[in-house]
Amino acid sequence: METLLAQIGQQGFQVLKYLGGIGYLGVDILYFIFIAPFSGRKLRVRTGPIYTQMARVGYSSLGVVTVVLLFMGMVLALQMAYILKKFGVTEYVGAVVGVGMFRELGPLITCIVMSGYVGAAIAAELGTMAVSEELEALTAGAVHPVRFLVVPRFIGTTIMVPCVTMIGNFVGILGGMFIAYNVLKISPSLYVQKMMEPLMVKDILTGVFKSWVFAVIIALIACYEGMKVESGAEGVGQATTQSIVLSIVMIIVSDCALSFFFYFWVEG
């Protein structure tokens, strides 16, 4: 029993320590974005690296995200058609696909894919810099690594992930339309009409807000895991793996919490 309690206490301490490190990194990011540029110390974040990260996060990941959500929309349409067919209302498959994509599946699937595509790349880059002592060199040159390396990646990720999510939502809806037209013999006009009937602006905003929260989670965890690497190539690999796993876990947990929030406090 003593050993069990000791292990529980040790794991709990490690979790608190990890959350504290994430919190400190988040505070530094907020400082260099909203306070440092106006402090008169010329700590302005450069826009060039931000545009570079936006292009990397958005353009480079757009292909894999659209392919995944295209087939996800097709699968969702097929599964819902199986259920709706029993009630004789297969024409409402567009409503299910549209609301499901904008509110839940679009943000969730997109950010899970991007946690492995973008988050892993960020963790590996920063981990390699930490191993090669580039972070120490920046500190020695009076350049804060968070301002120079982390903030552009954080801003680029949090801006582009919601944009990629919206594009993926429309692609997923097109996938559902393909199944509706070719399998269920539902015309595209009827599909769009039935999709627009229950779809509201708050459904779209809910998905956009979720994707932004997930983007913050991906950026924070990836940057933190990369910057705390101390060993060699093995440490970079471990940081990359932990970044992906923790990002996916936290995305799903936060998705559950946000769903409860929107259901009981916003819509209830």
Overview of the structural elements:
With 268 residues, this protein is an all-alpha fold. It has one domain. Helix content is 85%, strand content 0%. The chain has helices spanning 2-35, 47-87, 93-131, 134-140, 145-182, 188-196, 201-227, 233-266. Helix 2 (47-87) runs parallel beside helix 5 (145-182) and helix 3 (93-131) crosses helix 6. The longest helix is centred in the first third of the chain and has 41 residues, at 47-87. The radius of gyration is 22 Å and the shape is elongated.
The gist of it:
The protein is mainly α and 268 residues long. The protein has helices at residues 2-35, 47-87, 93-131, 134-140, 145-182, 188-196, 201-227, 233-266.
- Outline the biggest β-sheet: none
Mean pLDDT: 91
Question: Structural class of the helix and strand makeup?
Answer: mainly alpha
Spans of 5+ residues with little confidence (pLDDT < 50)?
none
Total tally of structural domains: 1
Helices, by number, come to 8
Q: What is the total tally of β strands?
A: 0
Radius of gyration: 22 Å
Shape: elongated
What is the helix content?
over 70%
Strand fraction equals under 5%
Spell the H/E element sequence.
HHHHHHHH
Termini, distance in Å? Answer: 44 Å
